[in-house]
Design a protein that fits this description.
392 residues, alpha+beta, eight-stranded antiparallel β-sheet, three-stranded antiparallel β-sheet, 19% strand, globular
């Protein structure tokens, strides 16, 4: 990894607010202003140690705000450059890098995983041969969901976990059913490294972080702990949030959960995914990563989102939601003291991300309400526009 440093201002406020916008007349300004108030109020109500969010529109930041402390009882405030763990939002970077390489003919989605991991086997030899790279990145391997995550949670070593897949029998034929994975998803890493001759972390740095000027983004626990301005993890207990040490377990699966970044970095990631950095993320790439793959019906039962979702699929490292009739590209993450959420509407050209340093479901509630209000505002604006045209 490359070493980078970014000069930061010392900010004395417990609650920090940023608003950067070149289009104050945005149709979504009021929604954004209200969301800032709700974000701060809900984090305070739920006693979350700290967090940050950003809302982007087209190629600009519409609203950015940070709240609270890097650690419970700490004197250091979270600001726009404070680095958090992204947890499973890391999969959006893996899906993007893998798609870049497919489009450059480094490998293809239909190739069997065993071509690159010949020692990979399942209890059923035929099923072992059927799993391809598209199934890996599209969460449709057919394996039991979260296979062997329990061992990873207990800090089991990946080299000891992978041979255990030989005991598994798939739930369905690969490609036919949704099967969320962390370990198996990260099998894309040896494929990428064999075909490029470079490490996964270096490739993400060179192909994504650097070109998008994501100055505080990195991969791995060493890079995270070397960052001075970082948020500490907090788990929920009966007596409230408790600060804990950063765990290394899920850093073993870099494509699934290895990325660290600030809310400023995620603003750049969202803007690029909205199509405003085509030299890095081409239109062809963006179209492919959000192409709906296997249906994810379990998502339709999410407590905070179920009243809004009409359909849900998995793309390539991104979820693809039908949210009240609108396409919403989404992913969330949760790992040992951190939660994250990133989503964008390609049609409305709006994106939003949140990062918290405490395990709280409030992030899901905030996200669902935000997107409901955004699409409601869009419908209202459209209705007013049509009414005005009729009057003319």
């Amino acid at each position: 990894m490359f070493n980078r440093s970014l000069p930061l201002l010392t900010l004395p406020l417990v609650s920090l607010f940023f608003s950067i916008s070149s289009h104050a007349q945005s149709d979504y300004q009021a929604v954004s202003d209200n969301f800032k108030s709700q974000f701060h109020a809900q984090l305070k109500k739920n006693k979350v140690p700290g967090g940050a969010f950003v809302i982007v529109e087209n190629d600009k930041v519409l609203k950015m705000s940070a709240f609270g402390k890097r650690g419970k009882g700490d004197s250091l405030n979270i600001n726009s450059h404070t680095v958090f763990r992204l947890a499973s939002v890391s999969k959006t970077f893996a899906g993007t890098l893998a798609t870049m390489l497919v489009q450059e003919d480094k490998f293809n989605w239909n190739e069997p995983l065993q071509k690159y991991m010949p020692d990979f086997t399942l209890a059923d030899p035929v099923a072992s041969q059927q799993i391809n790279l598209g199934h890996i990145i599209g969460q449709s391997t057919g394996l039991m969901p979260n296979s062997y995550d329990n061992i990873l949670n207990a800090n089991g070593k990946l080299s000891k976990i992978i041979p255990k897949f030989s005991k598994l029998t798939p739930m369905c034929t690969p490609g036919k059913c949704y099967s969320y994975q962390n370990i198996a998803f990260s099998f894309i890493q040896p494929v990428i490294e064999q075909q490029t001759g470079d490490s996964y972390a270096n490739l993400v740095e060179k192909r994504i972080f650097q070109p998008l000027n994501m100055q505080t983004a990195s991969i791995g626990i060493d890079n995270f702990l070397a960052t001075d301005n970082r948020a500490s993890p907090h788990i929920k207990t009966r007596s409230g949030f408790k600060q804990v040490k950063v765990k290394s377990n899920y850093y073993q699966v870099e494509p699934a959960a290895g990325v660290n970044a600030s809310i400023t970095d995620l603003s750049k990631w969202l803007i690029a995914n909205l199509g405003h950095n085509p030299k890095v993320l081409s239109p062809q790439l963006l179209a492919e990563i959000k192409q709906p793959g296997v249906r994810t019906s379990k998502e339709l039962r999410r407590r905070e989102w179920k009243t809004h979702l009409q359909n849900a699929h998995y793309g390539k490292g991104w979820r693809v939601y039908d949210f009240e009739g609108e396409e919403l590209i989404y992913h969330a993450g949760w790992v040992a003291g951190y939660v994250a959420e990133v989503a964008y509407s390609p049609r409305l050209q709006v994106g939003m991300a949140m990062l918290l340093n405490g395990e709280s479901r409030v992030i899901a509630k905030l996200g669902a309400n935000f997107w409901h209000n955004i699409f409601k505002q869009h419908a209202k604006t459209l209705k007013q526009s049509n009414k005005q045209k009729t009057a003319e």
